[in-house]
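Dear all,

This email documents one entry for the complex benchmark we are building for the journal club exercise. For each entry we list the sequence lines for every component of the assembly. Then comes the predicted three-dimensional structure of the complex as a token string, followed by one or two observations. Please use this as the template for your own entries, and keep the labels exactly as they appear.
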Amino acid sequence: MNSKGKISRRGFLKTGIAVGAGVYGLSYLGTIKKKPSLKQLKKHDLKQGMVVVHGNTTNTQEEVIVVKELVRRAISALGGMSKLVSHGDRVLIKPNIAWNQEPEFAANTNPYVVAALVELCRDSGARSVKVMDHTCSANPETSYNRSGIASAASQAGAKVSYVSKNRFRDFVIPDGTVLKLWSFYEEMVYKDEVDVLINVPIAKQHGTSRLSMGLKNVFGMIGGDRGSLHTDIHPKIADLNKFVKVDLTVLDAFRILKKNGPTGGRLDDVDNSPEHARRIIVSTDPVAVDAYGATLFGIQPKDVGYIRKSHEEGLGEMDYTLKGFEEFHI
Amino acid sequence: MKGKQNNWPFYARRVIQCISFSVFIYLLLFLDPLTERDASANIFLRMSPLSAIGAMMTVRAVIFNYWPAFLILLLTIPFGRYFCAWICPLGTTIDITDGFFSGLRRYARRSVYDGRRLKYYLLAFLLLSSLLGLQCAGWFDPLSIATSVFAISIHPYIVHMGNSFFGYFENIPFMGYFFSFFHAFFKEILFAHHAPFFRAHGILLFAFILIITFGIVVRRYWCRNLCPMGALFALFSDWSLFKRNVSSTCTSCGLCVEKCGMGAIESGGQSTKEGECILCMTCRKVCPEYSVTFRRQQPALQKYAIDLSRRAFVVSGITSAAITPFLKLNYRKKINKGNTSIIRPPGAVNETEFLARCIRCGECMKVCKTNGIHPVLLEYGIEGIWTPQLIPRIGYCDYGCVLCTRVCPSGAIKRLPLEEKRWVALGKARIDHNRCIPWVGYSRLPELEKEWQDFNCGVCEEVCPVPTKAIHFNTYVDEQGREIRRPFVREDVCVGCGFCEKVCPVLGTSAIVVEGIQPQTIVRKEKTLKMSPSGNFLPVTLGKWKRISDPKIYEGSEKLYEYINGGAEPYLSYSFLRVTNAEYGDDAGKKISIDIWEFDTAENAFGAFTKDRAGAEIKLGNRAALFENYLSVWNDVYCIKVEPRQGSISAGEVSSVGKSIIDVMPYKKEILPDIIRYLPENNLVKESLKFFHKKIILDNIYLSDNFIEENVFHLSEQTDAIIAEYKHGEEESPLLLMLVKYPDSNTASNALEDAVQVWRTWGEKETITDSIHTFQSKNACYTSFLQEKHFLAATFLSKSREEGEKLLKCVLERLQRIR
């Protein structure tokens, strides 16, 4: 620089090169960052089988107590949350918050199920509990709020956050049959982001895949053009499930959506009867959970393409009684 | 004047201006959470008398929502043009940018027009064209401009800029966490979790830059010469209590002339231009002699008139009269026969009124949660520029959202409660069969050899938020049993929200496109949707078959007796609704008869189908059976029967007729009666399954040599019953299993008691093991009963005791497990 506020051509060149090198160098620093390793299934001492807990209430005020108790009893029957979540773990709970709909329409996971799980994780000494979903609504805020999950989970002590667009990365699905590569949400698949991943779906009828439960709920962990997955959906669901490491699946069947799913919106389509709903299903085996869930709709598990496919590919057992089955009422 | 002067009016103005601007920005940034809480976040827009008068004159109605505008206008009478300096957000913005340009201004030669008259002519033009039915006040309203510029251009720019800036630094090790933290904070204060983006943001920004760059030459150029709202205030400021007065101490130093932002001071500080003073109090503050005061009387000498030429007014009048019809010429409308298929936000009033009311402020675009509302450019002719339209491919209309209906200041979008909004149809979705994946796949079906499943899609059906779904599937099943589900739109319930268009996986233009309808309609408020009468499914031609007679509909029990006198009872036991019958004939003189039976639920239709199912099962609808050339199909709530009447008719002909009927029907979801899942699957003869409620069906089934007179099983409408055959091998005679579900366990135990009692009266040998009652008849047929809670299970015609009991135990296990 020669005089005040002026810059010579040479000075311009020098500064330009310096700034350019700095900016490039800094971004280069980002690329040499060690590639984070992927989350594996957490070693745990939970029982292998499945626990189904029934409980009914018609009183909406009591719902919060009953539902939370159902979850607590189910988890303790499986061995207790402390068998899975150890002190200092980072837990991510992935409910179904796909739609902008109130809880009574059974389009989203019951908020109290999520809240109860958050409490259990915190009681087991989890360092942080995150609740998030990649919603189908374009604006997650509406779904988070209307589903009641945002308030219920944050009251219980969880960090409720929205997915951030720039945190989706493409990953190779090692043994994918139809999908070889898909974009997943970093926070749900990296080892240094999450220790325990809990999938909390709700049981719903679904147009394309017949039913939407645990395995289908994985659609909320992925990015990319999700619409394009709907052609030949069954093997694709199985492929996606090979990649995500869900440690525990808690199926909310307190209300189930029998028709016009997965969006719902008619109370007539929601089944609240003790014969088909009003229960919580927990297991570490996502296929078994979905197989049980299918029976609630009067459908044989083997008739649902992705359940059969997932079973055939070794993701879990379609016969949910195989590894042990416990059922009780509260 | 001696001593120090207190400059509080100047500082008060600054403070109020700052507060006002901050409130304006705050209301804009947090528009959606505030609107959700139903706060009047659109208060600034409602303060604009120009838009208020323009809109009201054009629609010729009073808009009560605009009361703040009149308050502002009323306050102008005592306070003059205070609004421009104290409140107007565009004025404040210009003040700020003028500050940036102060250095440049020093070098600028004053050569732009600065004659003050333009704004009056513009106002005259706007008001006159409003009277003539063209409302374009919104384009020139400073509040509309400020709102749309900040909401549509500046806010998205800042958000995107921030995102890319932080996005870059977040990737750098060590520093990254620090930046992530600030990024989160930045998102929080800018309310930008969902990065907005608007069409034509650049055009708006260009207009804005044009307005502010005049500041390089003259300060507040817009306010001086162009702002029609300023002109309106100026007209009302004649009676102001605060007019600039200069006392005799004035030395004509010219400092105030230089500092006045409006250039309103003339003759070395002595006189003030009429209607130009905006009471910013700067001259009062800068005057070294403290000779400036504001009071009601103003000496005549200190008035400096703006010379408005009458001729120019006449010209602007003529221009508006001439230009109004010109602007209303709409080529788009012409080629589209009046329907431009623009999707207006929900609650938009009819199109003429909408254009008259809409002040082009962009508030609805800003508040839209899905970022779906964008400005119209030329799709609606010139008069429609900058009005809102929904572009579903970018953002759909959320089924549970009414925010845009709440923010509109002028009632172009009327306020709708959520319950009402859900029934408003903005448009109708249409499927392009040449793009839609299953439709294209379907048309190629004969040549498809593998990967046909890649042609099944259905994202549109999935996301359709209408509770009963406005999109349904027709299922086509070909000879190889491959199913392709083709979506179709039920226009009567489609609300045109565009969610389907947004998610359609077809690249580029969606295969399902929403066309706007104007005026918006209310869709039928029906609790349950049924295709009725079923005559719809019997068209004039079905392939080669032509309908001979009009379909006859027999509705209710009376009419059914008329139709099939003897056999009506069994159908009535399945809550029969109606049956439609028509005969079809072909050119060769063959005749067939088609019955479409409709029941209240799919389960009952299934029951009726199982009642007279005969022959082999074929792939059609939910279930279908073909016995020689008699076809019966169950599909949802319908049970279809195709019978040959005349001529030799092949099975293929009959089944192709069945297929064509199914193709027209919506819903092909197989809803089996719930009770079926308790049946053990081993050795079950699937075709033998019969579902029923009442005894009349059971009467036709051989259970025992003795006829059962009484309703021993207590069957009624409330009971669901199923009976099925079990066979070990092909030749073996079957064993029958009956399972009944009662409304409560009391009825179940009564039924067990009564049944056992009847078998006892026949003198059969009874044994009881594990609460299973087994009876042995004279010809060595075993009958067993078992009750579990509200279920009763029974096996009949068993050849050995163990066989029946084993089956019952299987049932018991399932009952206990599934329950």
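Observations: The CA atoms of residues 169 and 263 of chain B lie 47 Å apart. The first helix of chain B runs from residue 8 to 29.
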